[in-house]
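Budget justification, computational time. The allocation requested in the original proposal was used primarily to generate structure tokens for proteins on the priority list. As evidence of use, we reproduce two of the resulting records. The first is shown immediately below.
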Amino acid sequence: MNGAMIQTDAQLAELLPKLQSVDRIAVDTEADSLHCYFEKLCLIQISVPGHDYLVDPLTNLGLAPLAEVLEPKEIVLQGADFDLRLLRRSFGFVATRIFDTVIAARLLGIRSFSLAALVEKFFGVTLVKGSQKANWARRPLPHHMAEYAMNDTRYLLPLAEKLEAGLREHGRLEWFWQSCTRALEQASVQRSRDDEEAWRISGSGKLSGRASAILRELWNWRDKEAQAVDKPAFHVLQNHLLIQAAEQFAAGNVPDYRHFSPRRRQGFREAAERASQLPESEWPVRPKRRGTRPTREMERAAEELRRRRDAVADAHGLEPSLIAPRGTLDAVVADERQTETLLVPWQRDLLKL
């Protein structure tokens, strides 16, 4: 079964005891968000010592037993947030312990922390680059894509061992576990789209009030069209063309997208007409700047905290942003009560907060 695609409940049942026998399991995922509207889990890569597996969730596998086996294990991931969110949304898996190799590498002062860079550094192996636009929903999965996918977890367990040894040597293992716990907490927070603001795409800020109203309506029309055919919104109309159309409609012109079907062309124009008829009182208003404008005293305090952070980062060979991004420092200066929420203990200790 090693390296084979697991596509039946019987094959999955055969795999589960192999996972139950170990404490640390490497996991990665492949999703399709470039070819469909609703992000789709297309592949789960799993590695245990000496064995690599590909689990195919597109065959209507019952994945609940897999989630149950993985739940108490330490899950090794390369950049945990996306995978943890996708696994939770797709079949309800919630990790209880993680080992994020990106966090570990950064805590060792490693600046090139992509998987390819880390595998090259620690094992002298050059991984074949894969296409970022590959369609992971393809079946049968081409051999080169399966090989690329397996490489995503094949090296994670020995990599975790080397990184853990380095963290222990530098006395930063506790820092690491604190950061992994925080990453796990953040991944569990549900993100939701603000439908009142989602239409404010890049370039929308330059539009007039009427054109903004038209853009908002066109964006909502495009979103419904994309959902109906399960295609990414840019397949219907790209953002820059959406803004261009809003400007043209606002100027009294009717853009003609000839690649649209007659039905789609009619719906597009009707959306623009609905927005054009709105009274000015219903046009979008520019969003107010969030938060309060910092005082000079706050700016001085933030600058002093940045200097302290940079000095500490330099002394420990770390990237300053790993200790605290600039936005976090500004937030802490604005409201000290956020310190414990935004920074884990090792970060607060280094900054003397």
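The second record produced under the same allocation is shown here.
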Amino acid sequence: MIRYALIAVAAVFAVACNSSPLQTPENTVGGANVVSSAKAPMKKGTTDITLDWGSKGQAGQVAIADVLSYGGSKLGITAPAGWQLIRDDSTPTTRQSLYWHAIEANDPSTPTWTFSEPVDAQGAILLLDNAAAAAPVDMSNVKTGSGGSIKSSSVTTTADGDVVLIFKATDFLNSPLLAQTPGDMSAVVTQDKAPHEYWILATWQSQNGTTEETEFSFPQLFNWVAAQVAIKHGSH
């Protein structure tokens, strides 16, 4: 277990190394790469949220959406046409819904998710090159909790060169954690200066195997969700 100091707080952000050899942020073994990301700010009491990938989307890429909603009962979510659910995990106050979509020519860059009732929502969207467009998700797993450390469960990948994405969300309401990205991971998205904080990190495997947990050891006072999703590479 390698430990990294957090900026501006007396806490530690600990990330376990992958059991298979890790690559640099540039995936040199032919696996998928995250090439773009964009965030949608918090909308209060909304019945929809749009995640805009801008002008960078290209046919053949895979988009990954992280839709975050807070408070109330587990209401219905309707995804845009062509978007497939990866997993949908929740606590009493924090819900993290992950989706994938293979981009086609002339796809709109502004997919919109709708909610059955008003809810507070925010989110992010990633674009990946060289992901398996027909079925990109290799494996996924999740942990949820109330208080304590935010930990994501390990996954056992079946394909070489997977990119492993870590999604963490919390309704943490105190000072921002301002986590420093570990040397063997890439910070894709950070939203750590708002009442509802979330992070998306990425790492890579050169060969299949079991990943280890990632952990924010700074204790949380409220509810959190932490998922790992391994994405398979496309054709070499």
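A brief technical remark on that second record: The two ends are 33 Å apart (CA to CA).
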